[in-house]
Write a structure and sequence with these properties.
Elements (H helix, E strand, L loop, with lengths): L12 H16 L5 H26 L11
Helix pairs in contact: 1-2
Length: about 70
């Protein structure tokens, strides 16, 4: 089931980042072709939304606590 693109605005930055990573992994496991290209495009959209939302939250002074993944 694909997520509703209109509901993406309600995802947290971390959720958007996790969705992007999941799509990149799924694309890596998918043979080259249209389906893989679509997965990569979707991953890029999630990553872009995460970056934009993070920037916007910083602009309004509402920066959420970020996990350290390292």
């Amino acid at each position: 089931m694909k997520p509703d693109h209109n509901s993406n605005r309600y995802f947290t930055v971390e959720q958007l980042e996790e969705l992007a990573v999941a799509k990149y992994i799924e694309a890596a496991l998918t043979p080259a072709g249209v389906e893989r290209d679509e997965l990569l495009d979707e991953a890029k959209r999630f990553a872009s939304r995460a970056k934009m939302k993070s920037w916007l939250m910083g602009e309004i002074g509402a920066v959420p606590h970020r996990r350290n993944y390292h």
